[in-house]
Structure formats: C-alpha cells, structure tokens
Recover the amino acids of this structure.
C-alpha cells in the first residue's frame, strides 16, 4: 500500500520526513515533497513524524485530497509518461518540477504557475 503526501505539505516543506526515510524515497519538489511509488518500502516512519499530518496511506486519503494519489506519481513521470527511478534523494539534488496542480495551488506567485 502506497504512502502519499497531501496538500498540507505545499509551501511548508518541513523536510523531517526525508531525515527519517531509510531508503531516501522522499524527493523535494519546488513547493512540496513527493514519495516515489516504487522506491518506498512502506515502513510508515515518515507518516509518524510529519508535523502537518500531510502523509497518509493511500486508503486513508481524506475526501478532497484524492488528486494527490496521482500528483505523487506524476512528479516522477518523464516527458514520455514513464515513471523514472532516480535511486534515492539527496539534499543536494535539484528539486523536482511540481505537477501543474501543485504549481497552481492557491498561494503560488505568478512566477510559480
């Protein structure tokens, strides 16, 4: 069962989840973090430490947040629509480009859209 990061992470990006992830499968985006759907070992440690309660199991995603199931996967699609497998995140990596819905999420400046 997949873990996903939801909208409360947008523009917060606390990053404590990345510090506890044993396989570095949580990647930084421009406005939020994303959990790689195939690199995650589903240990759930990130869920317990998130200060804004933005990480949930896919079957526990609250109403109104369902689009983030696709958003988390879309962050890892290449131009051809294939899921890339970067092999682990590092704080030195360039942030992933956020999917359009996140770039346009309320609070974004025109330069971020």
């Amino acid at each position: 069962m997949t873990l996903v990061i939801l909208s409360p992470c947008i523009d917060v990006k606390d990053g404590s989840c990345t510090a506890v992830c044993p396989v570095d499968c949580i990647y930084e985006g421009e406005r939020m973090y994303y959990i790689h759907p195939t690199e995650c070992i589903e240990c759930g440690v990130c869920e317990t430490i998130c200060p804004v309660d933005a990480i949930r199991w896919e079957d526990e995603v609250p109403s109104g947040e369902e689009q983030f199931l696709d958003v988390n996967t879309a962050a890892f699609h290449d131009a051809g629509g294939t899921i890339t497998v970067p092999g682990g995140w590092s704080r030195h990596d360039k942030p992933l480009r956020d999917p359009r819905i996140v770039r346009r999420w309320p609070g974004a400046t025109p330069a971020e859209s």
The mean pLDDT is 91. The radius of gyration is 13 Å.
